[in-house]
Amino acid sequence: MKTRQETVTIRFSEMKDAAALMELDELVWDRNTAPEPLKWSSRDHYLLQCPPGTQLVALHEGELCGYVGFRSPTGLNSNRHVLELNIAVHPAHQRQGIGQRLIEAAKDMARVEGIAKLRLRVLSSNPGALSFYRNCGFKEEGRLIREFYVDGRYVDDILMCYFL
């Protein structure tokens, strides 16, 4: 019997993935996981911010179930060795190794591209994500204290990194 992890395919995002990626963003990015819920105004707006090839997507039996996005944090030549990541896995597919496979695929892709550092941001109100990132080898490198005010409380923005 195959586990879900064994039947997952990871590839670069394509134009045809836009609708499923937009739906996943709306499902995953809420007040617990982001300073504000993420809602795209249109497919064109989404594609402008997340063009094809700027994510690795995970597919289980042909259905998109997660992604890891990557981009240069500043666009400066002196910062080209760094990629900023964001990851989302459909709740029905969480805790099955898919997120870990996506992070490992991002690390492999980054090594091939000569990237030296991966970075990401996570809210202190999201202990599950913090634990996940630590298990993937990320370390806290900074904390913006009381950076966001979400649902009547202050939340820290934790900066994490992984050196390749």
From TrEMBL:
Domain N-acetyltransferase residues, every copy: 8-164
Listed Pfam families: Acetyltransf_1
Cross-referenced InterPro entries: Acyl_CoA_acyltransferase, Bact_Acetyltransf, GNAT_dom
Assigned keywords, A-Z: Acyltransferase, Transferase
Molecular-function GO terms, alphabetical: acyltransferase activity, transferring groups other than amino-acyl groups
Superkingdom, natural source: Bacteria
Protein name: GNAT family N-acetyltransferase
Organism: Paenibacillus lautus
Taxonomic lineage of the native organism: Bacteria, Bacillati, Bacillota, Bacilli, Bacillales
